[in-house]
Amino acid sequence: MSNHMKLEIPSKSQNEAFARIVVAAFAAQADPTIDEISDVKTAVSEAVTNAVIHGYENGPGTIVVSATLEGNRLEVTITDYGVGIADLEQAMTPLYTSKPELDRSGLGFTIMQNFMDEVRVESEPGKGTTVKMVKFFSRTGAAAEA
Amino acid sequence: MEVALLRAGSTLIVRMKGDLDHHAADKLRAGIDDKLKRGGIQAVLFDFGGVNFMDSSGVGMLLGRYKIMTEKGGKVLACSLNPRIMRIFTMAGLQKKIPVFSSREDALAGAEGGCRCQTT
Prior knowledge:
Strand content of chain B: 25-35%
Oligomer: heterodimer
Number of helices of chain A: 5
Radius of gyration of chain B: 13 Å
Number of strands of chain B: 5
Order of helices and strands of chain B: EEHEHEHEH
Structural class of chain B: alpha/beta
Helix content of chain A: 25-40%
Largest sheet of chain B: 5 strands, mixed
Strand order of the largest sheet of chain A: 1-2-3-5-4
Largest sheet of chain A: 5 strands, antiparallel
Strand content of chain A: 25-35%
Distance between the termini of chain A: 22 Å
Order of helices and strands of chain A: EHHEEHHEEH
Shape of chain B: globular
């Protein structure tokens, strides 16, 4: 099975839930387990939240969420055109946050890396950030939970 | 997210229903901090019985309330976590700071000094 989706949303916190639910509904075509779909929802939520808080610093902007299913492989891409990340290594260090005053835990990338099979981040200061994540589904999920 | 802020003695119970993400955490934080500023609260108990989803924004909100309460000599507790929420707690190392209980009753006993912590 091969399929593709693309979602364009304004950078608003209320769209975080919308984005993760849309990707989860799309991914459901591959019969993932409940745990697998929860992993995807959490990772998407982290990436979209990063775009809202860090990419656009809670200001206006556009976030593009796209996903591709090829068999049991889901690839999700989240792109913002915001401020970008100057030091990716530092940003991806567990517990590091550039906004401690906002009660950020610094675990966003850590959760993405733990819940997805591959995470790649490309960013350019002043131009924006793209997070690409891949999840391989077991495919036996639907039968296992029936 | 639906939130009810209840008092049981000197404990503030935060009963949550829905998804605890960045959008919900910002609103939750404001409501809780308003109650804390009024004083008289020695413990904050987060009841996760109605929460099916939490991401790192929830972790940050919890750690922020933990910091406020420990500075006041108080504590933060949590109860009724499903396995998904517990996984996030474990990944963030939250149980080292915030004791987790299987039920609200056990947690309220914990707020008064007892300990029947959830270990799963």
